[in-house]
Design a protein that fits this description.
GO terms for molecular function: deoxyribonuclease I activity; DNA binding. One of its GO terms (cellular component) is nucleus. Keywords: Endonuclease, Hydrolase, Nuclease, Signal. InterPro entries: DNase_I, Endo/exonu/phosph_ase_sf, Endo/exonuclease/phosphatase. This is Deoxyribonuclease. The chain has one domain (about 20-274): Deoxyribonuclease I, Chain A, CATH 3.60.10.10. Helix content is about 25%, strand content about 30%. It is α+β, with helices and mostly antiparallel strands. The protein has helices at about 1-15, 40-50, 65-75, 155-175, 235, 250-255, 255-265, and strands at about 20-30, 55-60, 80-85, 100-105, 110-120, 130-135, 140-150, 180-185, 205-210, 225-230, 240-245, 270-274. The structure holds 2-acetamido-2-deoxy-beta-D-glucopyranose (NAG) (2 copies). One 2-acetamido-2-deoxy-beta-D-glucopyranose binds near residues 203, 205 and 206.
Length: about 270
Amino acid sequence: MRLLCALGLFLALLHVTSCLLIGAFNNQCFGDRKSQDNVVMNIIKEIVLRYDIILIQEVRCNHNLSVPNRLLALVNEGSPQFKGIVSEPLPLGSTISHRERYLFLYRYQKVSVTDSFQYTDTVFSRPPSVVKFSSTQTVGKEFVLISIHTQPTNAVVELRALVDVVKRAETKWLNKNIMVLGDFNAGSNYVPMYTRPTIPLFNTTVFQWLIANNVDTTVSRSGNAYDRIVVTTDMYNGMNPRSADKFDFKNAYGLTQAQTEAVSDHFPVEVQIL
Ligand SMILES: *[C@@H]1O[C@H](CO)[C@@H](O)[C@H](O)[C@H]1NC(C)=O
Ligand SMILES: *[C@@H]1O[C@H](CO)[C@@H](O)[C@H](O)[C@H]1NC(C)=O
């Protein structure tokens, strides 16, 4: 992965190209309390700094933008490099205490947001936010990220509907470079194997699943690959699929189980695009 990135950087000297690391992190109950815990926030900061674009889920600040603002201020301390795009509290119209926001943080010198829309279908407990990015590293290279965090007990139904979100983005922007990322809850009994043929996203002619079933994305070592990255074949052709993995920040930063759990019950998942 590093070698490929180095190769990408070498090519960057010849052409204008470079790789981007994209991550998705279910940052369990990320609300006012957690965002005021300095120890936890410094770990989250390190995680964010690893990425060029990171989707953060379970952002819980439904009356204002206190949580994204605190995180942005922290990661930009000293040298400003990130901007954010945050959804309304979702689902729209539900009891406000049960809503959550999606937050994308991105390095604005490498990518910019060129358009976005909020999907509103009520089948989703947290309807996807759809964001189109343009890479400043490669002239004219645009791609679409679709966030998802399913309700575990409704995961199969929500996963079936995701193909409609992909189609909407594709039609709206005439762009087939599309990635769906987040906590799919695509493990354990939530999404049993026998349901997979009924989920269009599992059609391997059209989509590639980059995080394998045996990648445990939970901190508790439950053995479940809940968090996933799924891309269209077009997007797949412009990436390094072998770089797809979870980011075990417990090992990487030498944290104890308790320190890790204070941050989240999930590890981020990530992939490099070239
Ligand atoms: C944001 O809303 C919370 C209540 O959810 C409140 O405690 C906090 O003071 C507000 N922060 C700002 C900056 O307005
Ligand atoms: C998968 O997608 C292709 C292309 O759209 C389609 O022709 C094929 O019927 C699909 N396969 C299944 C099992 O739905």
